[in-house]
Specification:
homodimer, OB fold (Dihydrolipoamide Acetyltransferase, E2P), BirA Bifunctional Protein, domain 2, 2 domains, 8-stranded mixed β-sheet, 5-stranded mixed β-barrel, 18 strands, elongated
């Protein structure tokens, strides 16, 4: 008999199937026992009755414990009212009867759960979050393939501490020093002249000492870079991408969003156009909302929270002051004090999920910025080369996967959005 | 006028289009000039004639240089004999006239090319390799989605130097030490109890001092892990995956394989069943072929080369002696001296592309192995937990992306298979 997955049970109603799974929960009422099975693809209830099973099996099943692993054989039936399936068990076998499982139904502290992350991943909330994360990753690849982007894996080990070392992890690299990458963008800019449109998607690292609900020291970032685009075209791609990703989750993860008690309506808004305001307008609005932000200042995390609670859909904040933005951002020809850039902020208080900009494509201008920012010129000689040999107008953006997962799942803390989170105080398991 | 991609020119024959591209090559014969255009999606020839263009434009085009960036407008026609398209240019504009391009048609040394990797990526060979790499990545995601695997990103920053520190990169992690991951397998084993089948796909790091054509210090690895499989089922998944990946390249990268002068026939063999021999048989065969390998020894890189030159399709070598394999591999119940494992070797001398095995699922046995290997027991307490709480038969495998790219592209050295290679002597650009 071939093993079937719980997610496929609908195809096997009234048939006998074999399922391999873990016992996520169990209860018994005299002559009948109920096991909630979890096989990774979904959940189903197994019904074990003393009239169906012989005495030996009936005795054996009393040994069941939380998280025991089993193979069962039984007939599939549909729950009369819900889209759930049950199995009337005719035979079963334990792979292993689990020892007393440390994660009980009672409330545990976050540190305890994180110490047991290797087990906590099995909990239905965590299961649902990882499934949504998987859909968001998968949708990203689909979108970029559909739009003629080539994946160019940018390096993690980099030779220069380009923008100061305070937030960089440093390591000995044979007889020199190396630094863990914070973004692949500069490398992608090199690749557009070969491939036109490129993206990377991998882990990046920030040795930030900040302990907030939005920070991890290791997280997954996607950078995209495009030749021959202006800021408006760049934002269009971002809007299409985010819309595509959220739609994929709405389509594929209904059950998971239900487990997470996510307000689906809030996600369905994504079909409407995203909001767009300038940094000047955002600051004015924030001041009206009671923030102490000053004109020309960057938005802090709290500002983003206050601001995006006003919106029911993602919001682009464009044209930040160039002096608070990175050296490579092109300036607005109409107002040199502004950068041709935008951050995309998720609604409902979530804040920044994407940062993007037009890149400076003029050699002399770029050299000037590098000097102004007191960056080591020779470390950027290869990057400057790109402006010597067929420079083109170009731009791109990067998203932080975990922040998108947090928003889409509607969870407050980013630490649950990655399988094995790394923070200033956590490197385990 | 909307810009079209060169790859789509077939749809625009006899129509006027706009193309944005780089001049990859150019020549002139009196009243007519030919530019080879590259826009990332493909290559096309632009024909510029003094009868079609006004005098100013005709003078301007004389300034063209290798890698200049241009926008051209012109009518599309098909090459009478080949699947190639030409554009009869009616107007053009330079974005930038490139300075003298350092990579000429003449032969350059590898060090020079690698120093200029940010430009070398534009060369047609390198372009083709990255496109094949992209297809292999994309096919991996498709395959795993199709087969109900969930992506679980394993961490790069890990707390323990589990198997000795000689090949590990170490870094300061706030007030402790961290190590860059060499494989996510152990973490994936934790995730199967939540998701059944999982994979990761990301960079891994080896501080190996070896300078060979098969080694990089940073490379991309895919690990897959499955609950409820035996070794035979595990190998079946590997065979299906590799077949799926190579078929995708044959389907999508005909032009690229031609540029690389790859023997297509050698790749088309992939539809035949893969070969399978035991380690004992492999050693015997190698001894016959003149290798000095001794019974019970591991296959060296040279052995893999000699052996796989005998085969026209990938070859599984199974049942290595358990004492030369990792502690977590389950032993063969019929012969405890053998591990339930297999390496998959690519033909034509390429050698190992996949390593996989059944994992030890018994707590006491695993604990014994950890002690035998003198590994720090407390570092593995979470890994041992997986055998306490619903242990199941399981196995998995990992592939090295760059080795697969090298084989599929038919190139001898792995350093060209990754955008920005890192080796013992290279951390730049």
């Amino acid at each position: 008999m071939e093993t079937v997955l719980i997610k496929d049970l609908a195809k096997f109603v009234d048939q006998e199937v074999e399922i391999k799974a873990w016992v996520a929960n169990f209860r018994s009422s005299g002559k009948i026992a109920f096991w909630q099975l979890r096989d990774g693809s979904g959940f189903a209830q197994a019904i074990l009755s003393s009239t169906e099973l012989d005495e030996t099996k009936w005795q054996e099943l009393q040994k069941v414990s939380l998280e025991s692993s089993v193979k069962i054989i039984g007939k599939v039936s549909k729950h009369p009212k819900k889209e759930e399936y049950e199995i009337q068990v005719s035979d079963f076998e334990f792979y292993q009867i689990a020892e007393e499982y440390p994660i009980a139904k009672k409330e545990h502290g976050v540190d305890f759960l994180m110490d047991n992350r290797h087990l906590w991943l099995r909990s239905s909330h965590q299961w649902a979050i990882m499934r949504v994360r998987n859909t968001l990753i998968s949708a990203t690849y689909d979108f970029f393939r559909e739009h003629n982007f080539i994946k160019i894996d940018s390096p993690i080990l980099t030779p220069n501490a380009c923008e100061g070392t305070t937030e960089l992890f440093e390591l000995d690299y044979f007889d020199t020093k190396a630094y863990l990458s914070q973004s692949g963008q500069l490398y992608l800019e090199a690749a557009i002249a070969a491939h036109g449109r490129v993206f990377d998607f991998g882990p990046v690292f920030r040795a930030e000492k900040s302990k907030t609900r939005r920070h991890l020291t290791e997280f997954w970032m996607m950078d995209a870079e495009m030749a021959f685009v202006d800021l408006a075209e760049n934002l269009k791609v971002q809007e299409d991408l985010i819309r595509f990703m959220v739609s994929a989750v709405l389509e594929k993860n209904k059950a998971e969003l239900e487990i997470l008690e996510r307000d689906i309506k809030a996600l369905e808004n994504i079909t409407k156009p995203f909001y767009k305001i300038t940094h000047v307008e955002a600051v004015k609005k924030l001041q009206e909302l009671g923030s102490d932000i000053k004109d020309g200042e960057d938005l802090g995390a709290d500002d983003e929270t206050i601001l995006t609670k006003q919106y029911d859909n993602p919001l682009f904040v464009t044209h930040y002051p160039s002096k608070i933005k990175a050296f490579y951002m092109k300036r607005d020809a109409e107002d040199e004090s502004k950068a041709l850039c935008a951050d995309l902020l998720a609604p409902e208080g979530y804040g920044e999920i994407i940062g993007g900009s037009q890149r400076e494509d003029d050699y002399q201008e770029l050299l000037k910025r590098i000097k102004e920012h007191r960056l080591p010129e020779d470390a950027f000689s290869w990057y400057l080369d790109l402006r010597k040999y067929g420079s083109v107008p170009h731009g791109g953006f990067g998203f932080g996967l975990e922040r998108i997962v947090a928003w889409v799942c509607g969870i407050p803390h980013i630490r649950e959005t990655i399988p094995f989170p790394r923070t200033i105080s956590r490197l385990n398991p």
